[in-house]
Amino acid sequence: xxxxxxxxxxxxxxxxxxxxxxxxxxxxxxxxxxxxxxxxxxxxxxxxxxxxxxxxxxxxxxxxxxxxxxxxxxxxxxxxxxxxxxxxxxxxxxxxxxxxxxxxxxxxxxxxxxxxxxxxxxxxxxxxxxxxxxxxxxxxxxxxxxxxxxxxxxxxxxxxxxxxxxxxxxxxxxxxxxxxxxxxxxxxxx
Length: 190
Prior knowledge:
The protein is α+β, with helices and mostly antiparallel strands and 190 residues long. It has 2 domains: 2-80, Orthogonal Bundle (Arc Repressor Mutant, subunit A), CATH 1.10.10; 99-189, Arc Repressor Mutant, subunit A, CATH 1.10.10.10. The protein has 9 helices and 5 strands. A 3-stranded antiparallel sheet has the order 1-3-2. A two-stranded antiparallel ribbon has the order 4-5. The model has no long low-confidence stretch (mean pLDDT 84).
């Protein structure tokens, strides 16, 4: 039991110090345990943090773990620190973000084809907000940048992986397609 507490203390120190998510494999290697044992220890820590009404919690993101503040403690943090800068996701940003989330990796040109308008500003804002990032370059003339979502996107939308994003049923897709075609026709008529 004493050895488990010592290892959990090491895990806590790793997650606290790193500040970002740390892959399970790296944590396991650092504490010299296999991934299955390490995962069990971390999940036990997660349960303990919840049961003890602590101000912190551990979250799991794509087979990695991160220590963060519980939502219930936010009002106390705000009293100590100045109001954190909050950004607003406009309809344009949400539309662009959903295209990136569902089509990633995706280029700006592909986003613009779907949206029907220039998307430089929207993509740049999403990168600035940490919700989208460059994930590579397309092997094509000009080597356009490919964009994808970030871990911050997963945190903000409370999903552990992209697999948890809601799927659109075929009827919804057909409805969206019809709306887009009607909108395109209206623009042509003007």
